[in-house]
Every structure is written in C-alpha cells, then in structure tokens.
Amino acid sequence: MSVVIRNVRILSPNSSLHQATEIGIEKGLFVDPTTIKDAQVVDGQGGLLIPGLIDCRVNLREPGLEHKGTIASETQAAIAGGVTSVVATPTTDPVVDSPADVRLVLERAKASGLCRVLPTAMLTQGGQGHHLSEMAALVDAGCVALAQGNRPFGSRKIELNALKYAQSLGVGVILDSEDSDFAGGCAHAGQIGTGLGLSLNPPLSETLGLGADLDLVEATGVNAHFSRITTKNSVERIKAAKARGLQITCDVTIAHLIYSEHAIVNLDPNFHLERPLRTEEDRRALIAGVIDGTIDVIVSDHSPHEPGAKLAPFPETDQGMSMSEGMIQSLIELDKQGELPLENSLDAMTLRAARLINRTDLGCIQYGNSADCVLIDPDDQTHFDPTTWLSAGANSPLLGKTLPGRVLGTWISGQHFPR
Amino acid sequence: MQGPAALQLTPDGRLKHLLTTEGLSQSLITELLDTAETFLSSQGQPVKKVPLLRGKTVVNLFFENSTRTRTTFDIAAHRLSADVVTLDIRTSSASKGETLFDTLKNLEAMQADLFVVRHSAGGAPFFIADRVTPNIAVINAGDGTHAHPTQALLDLMTIRKHKGDPANLSVAIVGDLKHSRVARSLIHGLRGMGCPDIRAIGPGTLLSGDLGHLGVQSFNRIEDGLNGVDVVVLLRLQKERMSSALLPSEREFFNLYGMTESRLQLADDNAIVMHPGPINRGVEIANEVADGPQAVILDQVTNGIAIRMAVMAMTLSTQQESQS
C-alpha cells in the first residue's frame, strides 16, 4: 500500500526535502508523492516528521537474559521513543560471538516484526578477551560492528591483534575504554560519591583506558568507535585525535547529557550506571562535544532490568537504566531547556549514526531511502506511566515524569506503527 | 526528599531514624546529647535499667562483622528493658540467597520495632529505612565507608563533657580519613555543632578529596596540624591499607603520625585524646599516651552506651507518637 503523509514539516537538515510538507512512501522507500497513484493519505496534523532515530547502543537482553527484557519488548519500547533502528550489544548470556548467535538475534527481531535490529558481536570468543572471534563470518551473518563491551581484553597485546585483524577485514570496532585497575567503582570519584561513602570510579579509569586505546587504534589504523565517553578530558582527547587525522568516532549516553553526579544524592539505584555520572562541568563538555561534532552519536545505552536487580542498596544493584522509551522526548526536553538544540541531537541520532553503521539508506528523509520516519507533535507531551510502560525494565528515571513531545506515528521500511 | 538525610526526620523535624549525622541540626544533636546524659548516673556510669522500651523488640541486623558496636547496642537495648534479637546475617539467610529486601519483610512480619543495621555497602540503612513499614525505626550502626552516626554522637558527647561547647574548639582528626565512616560522621556532627576549626592529618593516600568541601583543613605533617588543638581524634588503621599500597608499613605510619607524648605537647596543654577503638598500640598511639591522663578512650565506650540508649529511646518515641 502506498502512503502519502501530508500536512507535516519535514526536519531532515541534509536533505533536499528539509522543510517540505509532504512525503510519499512506496514499497518501503520514500518517494515523490506526486508520482504515487491511489495512495492512502495520512494527515500529519501539522506535526514534525523526522528520520527515525538510530540508537547505536541498546541491550536487548536476548539470548539468555529474557527476565530483564526481550527483543520484542525492548524494540516496542524503542519505537515509542522515536527509534526505528537499534544496534544491539553482544553482552547477552551467552554473549554473541558466533554466526548462529547473530542469526538468532536477527530471527527473533524478524519474528517480533518491530524496529530494525542491527546486531554486533564480540571481538573475542566468549568475550573472554583471549581468542579472536571469527570476525569475517560474523560480518557475513549480519553484524554491523564488533565490540568487546564492558569485558576487558586479556592483555594489550591481544587487543592490538584484535584491532589489527578487524582492520585487515575492514570491520569497524566499538571500544569501551576503561582501565581495569581503576574500573568497578559505582560512583564518580567526586564530592557526592565520596560523601556517600560509595566505591569510586575516578575519571582516570576512562582517561588511562582511552589513551592506550587511541594509541592502539593509531598503530593499527582500524576504524574505531569509542562508546560511552563521560569526561571533559575524553572529549578533548578525541577532538585532538580527530584533528590529527585519526578515523575515529565516539558516542555519549543520553543519561550523561541529562544528569550529573548530583543525580545519585538520594541513592536512587536507577542512577547506578556502568559509567558513572560525572561532574556538571563534564556534562556541559559532553553537550558541547555533540554540538561541535566531536561526539558523533548519542545512544540510549538502554539497560532494562528485572525489579529485583534494583531492589538492594545502591552499590549492590545491577547497573544501567531503561531509557529507549523516552529518547525523542528527552532530546526535545534538552532542546526546550536550551541545553542542546534538537537540530544537533537529531543529527547525532540520524545522519551521523547512519554513517557509523555504514547505512546511507537510513537517517535521512530522501527519495530512495528506506522509509523510516517518526511523526511527532513537539508541542504535546508524553507522560511516562507505569501502566502504559512498554519496556520490561521499569528501572527508569523517566517513570512518573512528563516530558515534552509526543510520538504520533512511526514508519519503518514503510510499515506503519500507530501510537 | 532532599538527600537521603531527609529520610530520618519527620516533617516537623523530629528524629524517626538515625542514619547519618549529615544535616542534623545543632538543637537535635544537643537534645540527643542531653538525653544521653540523663542515662548516666552521678558517677558517670550508664544507669542499670529503665523501663522505657519494655515490650519492644530490637533486632540487631549485622551484615558485617562487629563485636564491640554490637555489644554496646545490646547492652543499651537491655538497659532500656527491650527484648533483643541478634541476627548475624552473614551466617544465615544472605548466604542462602535471600535478598536483603526479603529478609527485611520477614523481620517486619515478626513485629520488630527497631532495626540496628550494620552493612558493608554505603547507603544500605537508607535502603532499609526507605522500605520498612512506618512504625519501625532504623539505626545505622555503620555502612561501608559512609557513616557511623552513633560513634560520632558519642564522640561529640565526650568532647562536650570534657571540653565544653564544640563551637569554641579546634579538633584534629589523625589517620585514615579516606576510608573512615567514623571520621566522616564526626565531621558532619562537629559542623552541625558549629565547630569552627576541624583539621585532617594524614598522608595524601589517606585523605579524601572532599574534605575541603566539608570545611576541613588538611595537613600532611602532623606537626603543622596539631598546633594548639583542643581535641585529638585518632582513627584506627586497618591492616589492608598496607596490602593495597596506601602505606609502606605500620612502623612508618607510627613514625610519621603516631601520637607520642612529645607530639601531644604541640596540642593545647589540656587537650584530650580520643580513639574509636580498638587501639593499635605503637601504630596510632604510643603506650604512654594511651594510658596517660589526657586519653578519654574508655570514657568514650561508656558514653557509647548512653548515646545508643538515647537514640533508641528518641527514635522509638517519635515512631510511637506518629502512630497514636
């Protein structure tokens, strides 16, 4: 069925259709609406039509962690947050490190029939950091990148070999830079975490890891993406590395753009994250990094958990928050607060994210591209209520809150998901 | 709720749990210290028995090893005529996989009135206080490196008894402030009481970065920090500080920071020397100081019972009034 969406304002800055008021969809692609005959007409009610968000770091929890979430539940949550493609982390149980695992994820995603799922796999077998994964076979099976997640490499030598091998295959790698000696603390080593007597994670844990990783990336020439940077210092280092010509990219989580270390002052376990929330100065530097392009991509780092995982004293709870469901609303909120213009944050979650995963057919509303788009009313609002919450993980600071912006409908490869 | 400290107060500012000394007002601390003094006899010993908590059940929930603190809570509860149940959780349900939350719900069902909690995780007593039924009081008996409020209050009581109003005193805390819940709680308590001069003395590896924010002046040389102080608080040095390479040896610590008679002369002539115990002779403190006239370490232990009686009595009376 062909569709024409009328009475909208298209927000897709790099497209010739930016600011256009209608778009056609046929056979899963965007087309010139004037060329379609017998189209179903959708009235966009004057809303904004944006390219579907691409979320480059989502924990879908399948296989093995279905008590925390499933591909079906979490992709449904993603759609509610304006997300049409998710890059799935490989840190499941077992981890994704074989073509069979990759196919399993893809089949589950297909069976769910919701948003586009792009798998990643571990760089090393079992994520153990010792033996290289069959990277070529993993890419063949459909992986968009290889990652080591939050698991350390057995040694810097093994890491060097993994990066070198990936480079020779032309595969991109995703690195979580962290020095294992300093990792593990549950709060930023600042005034708040120290005052609460929590185990601490100093910025040095990231800086030392990033410094070493940058050297290895430079030595191998691999196409590397640094995920979840949290400090001003990291922004500066990546900026400098890009300036001297390194082909690297990086991302920041939505939580680190919204919150600083002050969020943990009430010991709310939802703010217990793998990468601790840092200072207000760091938060501002991260926002500036998104605006000036040093930080390429914004991710949700969506991490749903079962209720029991957060029902313990702060340091003993599982890390991560469930955020997919409020991505576009959070971006609109940051815009309305004057913190981060929507134009920049959208760019980070559409065009730049598409570039990261080498999908030129995504992230831009343009004739011939995959018809992935989201219709939103930026002047309405979304109330995040436990009774209508879609993610299996209720571990979210969004719950009980009302944010600006409302998703009116989503199209993924032309398939309509009404809200 | 503004900070976890707010959990321990009723809307009209009365104490329903004791979780931290952070944010406690001068008047509330004074009320606690005054109440504790009423539990001391004319000889300065805690009264033997009062019927204040008759029919009440106090549960000692110790998730972390402690003999001394637990004993003083036991004695305090018995002297208030409460029934006392002690659960050493390390050897019971926690090792069988029961979560803290479930343990808690079971104890609630057993009609406990007050939980005394010690836990290795910072914030655990807050988690418990936040989730217990409203008629149960929670007292923090030490959580991770976060807080140890009854120790801080007994220290304040000892200071006030020997030296008067902390608002006129200089207090030096010596040793491992970085890992010390005792030091952190004492600092908050001293600030609450308006103490204008709090000093931290130790090597860089044992002083934490947030001391400046707490209004504490840091000194690496003990000779600089002790000058003219009225109160010297020594902290216990844990053996694991050596294995984690924060210090070379106990001997070097004693040479640099051990409280000797000659160092004590740098403090005010009438300065008192305190220690939360148990003391390591020849590490934090020289024998002649530990046994000398300026040490008030055993008096701290005595005051500890009175303070714990006061805290139990006050929190339970708040709970009782809010029920009626």
Secondary-structure blueprint:
The complex is a heterodimer of chains A (419) and B (324).
Chain A: E1 3-6, E2 9-10, E3 23-26, E4 29-31, E5 40-43, E6 48-51, E7 53-58, H1 71-80, E8 83-88, H2 99-112, E9 116-122, H3 135-141, E10 145-147, H4 156-169, E11 173-175, E12 187-188, H5 191-195, E13 200-201, H6 203-220, E14 224-226, H7 232-243, E15 248-253, H8 254-258, H9 280-292, E16 297-299, H10 327-336, H11 342-349, H12 351-356, E17 373-383, E18 402-412, E19 415-418
Parallel strand pairs in A: 1-5, 2-6, 7-8, 8-9, 9-10, 10-11, 11-14, 12-13, 14-15, 15-16
Antiparallel strand pairs in A: 1-3, 3-4, 6-17, 17-18, 18-19
Chain B: H1 26-38, E1 57-62, H2 68-79, E2 83-88, H3 100-109, E3 114-119, H4 124-131, E4 137-143, H5 149-163, E5 170-174, H6 181-192, E6 197-201, E7 216-219, H7 222-225, E8 231-234, H8 240-243, H9 250-257, H10 261-264, E9 272-274, H11 287-290, H12 297-323
Parallel strand pairs in B: 1-2, 1-3, 3-4, 5-6, 5-8, 6-7, 8-9
What does this structure look like?
- The complex is a heterodimer of chains A (419) and B (324).
- Chain A is an alpha/beta fold.
- Chain A has a single domain, classed as TIM Barrel (Alpha-Beta Barrel), CATH 3.20.20.
- Chain A is 29% helix and 21% strand.
- The mean pLDDT of chain A is 96.
- Chain B has 324 residues and is an alpha/beta fold.
- Chain B contains twelve helices and nine strands.
- A five-stranded parallel beta sheet of chain B has the order 7-6-5-8-9.
- Chain A binds chain B through residues 189-191, 194-199, 265-267, 308, 311-316, and chain B through 1, 3-4, 22, 99-101, 119, 121-124, 126-127, 143-147, 181, 184, 208-210, 213-214.
